[in-house]
Design a protein that fits this description.
The structure is a homodimer of 392-residue chains. With 392 residues, chain A is α/β, with parallel strands linked by helices. Chain A has 13 helices and 13 strands. The first copy, chain A, has two domains: 6-123 and 366-388, 2-Layer Sandwich (Enolase-like, domain 1), CATH 3.30.390.10; 126-339, TIM Barrel. Chain A is globular and about 60 Å long.
């Protein structure tokens, strides 16, 4: 029998953080140890805030630090991973950040368990095999249509059959400016590629603002419009979906538990549910959502804009769902994100991404990268050091 | 024109925090200053985690510290309060804890604005008058039915016409043990009082577990069963509601934005929606939910288990809704919570609670209490002190 002997959080960041929609500029890396076994995970979260949620003093019986529910727990089987997640959710019910913090821990627990049982994670999840996924190149819109055109042409030259453009000024300017951006992306990709557009919640819940952009999206044959609204605005999603002809709606990356994703699946009229395993509480709830989406005939897609470790984690939950064939593939990640792992999930000759068959997540951490970008953090309460950046 | 010149967070805690469901054992107090004007608010949140979310370094354009969206902003009108909240939600989209942190800031902004405009907050919210509310005494179940009986008898002697028992062992033991607790509460209160039961999400989403407790709740003529499930399990709520005869369901305190509460109102079959202004993002979204609940014929109730400052804040959003007449009234709050304000909202001769007619929230802070329970916190990142407990 093994118990969790240590959980260490490492806050990594680029020297300069730019005020753009690039989520790969920092990273909260999680290392879990159980005797001789080690697993790695990653939270898609504000690192300092998640560190605080991991070490904070208890407020009451349902607002307890994440650490209290994890360190010392038994970890022998997949049931233990689920039990630990349930414990964190119950004991940290009123600790909002806990879901983001749990995410990286859950991922690390699956990695650890896979290594210990000599199985890739997807097989521990019950998937017989990992179907290859078709990656879409995920990039930010250019500052101008000309820049977007050039980005799209470069993606086409790299052989991607699908690409997503998002954030930047999209949705903030005029309807015509947004249309110009979308058409530039379509022109650069050519007629054959799948084009996806990510509005990054820019219209919050403003149905009319979204409806005004639909004609350009339809005429550019966009496969999905992603996050026109915030995750909670489920009714606005459903009403917009009712006005779409060929365009489908995608959303859900903001889900920090499986319940939120289920609400979007049940009531949002989505074509695609996008789950970030680094936010929803890890691989465990992500896998539950993938199963539910499949039953509801909504297509599951990973949300990943950071490291290859996160990419591997994000693909495990739906590895066995053959028809859910697309995957997000970050193409402009920071040197930190690109350098975090020795392995990289490259496209094969057919242009597809395959999960590693090695145990766990199949990724090893480049400790030089960790040392290079490691932030030095100290949190002291009443003279007691609750957190100090651990040695690597 | 005024700008927000300072926002200070004070982490207060009792010397000993017990592992029970008493949320009044600590407190994150917020002070906002705009030139000569000062407002006070409170987050119902893990204090250390919310402090971190207030000062954390930027991760990307949608994961920015709460402070960045607040300090320096204009605060002249009610529209400014709404604008600041929208800004925090947009700039901290991926910073999960931000909603809890914003809550105390929004409350403090309303208090500040009320003082500056010499109006009680409820009037700034558009309520012509503040209707008195009927307080229910809110306490934890005793460890045994005999203890619960004694608690209920004491509440009756104090003249409360309604009381809520919650948490403790309720829902964790056998169906018979839970029934004994509920009947003990009814016996102690007498036949005339309204009895409310709070399951504290104990069954997560287990419909059968909840159904098994219904007969005892019906026979004890319980007005509402609160939080049988976690906030996200909206379908389970609706299905349980379909099996209730006279008992109504109550829930929603976990809502950390208005969207979550709206989902519960629209799809959960609730009789009562319970909103904690210290969690949902403050008085602003709580007021939106109160209006929506009223339209949907769901009764709005405050959720408050901490200080009198939080109690005043929690009553403002539905002060003008005459038919929404119940209010939660914490009866076992800690010395910290009881001593935080000079004023106390006591029952009048008719046994009802009336909001202060003084400007803002009508509560003044006892600085001696703040000094007595103040926790000393330091957060340092790369040699830079991002937070140090401010002087009071």
């Amino acid at each position: 029998m093994s118990r969790i002997t240590a959980v260490d959080l490492f806050y990594l960041a680029m020297p300069e953080i730019r005020d753009i929609g690039d989520g790969s500029q920092d990273c909260l890396l999680v290392r879990v140890e159980a005797g001789p076994y080690v697993g790695w995970g990653e939270c898609e979260a504000s690192p300092l805030t998640s560190i605080a949620s991991f070490v904070c003093p208890m407020s009451h019986s349902a607002c307890v630090s994440v650490r209290d529910s994890v360190v010392g727990q038994r970890i022998d089987s997949v049931e233990d991973v689920r039990r630990i997640g349930d414990l964190v959710r119950a004991k940290s019910l009123d600790l909002l950040q806990a879901d983001h913090t749990l995410s990286g821990i859950d991922i690390a627990l699956w990695d650890l368990l896979g290594k210990r049982l000599s199985e890739p994670v997807y097989r521990l999840l019950g998937h017989e095999r990992a179907w290859p996924k078709r990656p879409y190149a995920s990039v930010l819109f250019g500052d101008t249509p000309a820049e977007t055109l050039a980005k799209a042409q470069a993606i086409r030259q790299k052989g991607f059959a699908a690409a997503k453009f998002g954030w930047g000024a999209y949705g903030r300017g005029s309807v015509q400016e947004d249309a110009d951006q979308v058409h530039a992306a379509r022109e650069g990709l050519g007629e054959e590629s799948r084009l996806l557009v990510d509005a990054g919640t820019v219209w919050e819940s403003d149905l009319d603002a979204a409806l005004a952009r639909l004609p350009a999206l339809e005429s550019a044959r966009v496969t999905w419009l992603e996050e026109p609204f915030v995750s909670g605005a489920v009714d606005a999603y459903r009403r917009l979906a009712g006005s779409c002809r060929r365009v489908r709606l995608a959303g859900g990356e903001g889900s920090h538990n499986a319940w939120m994703a289920r609400q979007m699946i049940a009531h949002g009229g989505l074509g695609y549910i996008q789950i970030d395993a680094g936010r929803i509480g890890g691989i465990t709830p992500a896998t539950d959502v993938a199963r539910d989406a499949n039953s509801a005939r909504v297509t599951y897609v990973n949300h990943t804009f950071t490291t290859q470790l996160a990419l591997s984690a994000s693909l495990q939950p739906y590895a066995g769902l053959e028809l859910h064939e697309l995957c997000e593939y970050p193409l402009e990640a920071s040197p930190l994100a690109c350098g975090l792992t020795h392995e990289k999930l490259e496209r094969d000759d057919a242009g597809q991404i395959r999960l590693p068959e090695e145990p766990g997540l199949g990724m090893s951490i480049n400790l030089d990268t960790v040392r290079r970008y490691l932030q030095d953090v100290t949190i002291v309460v009443n003279g007691e050091t609750l957190y100090r950046t651990p040695a690597i």
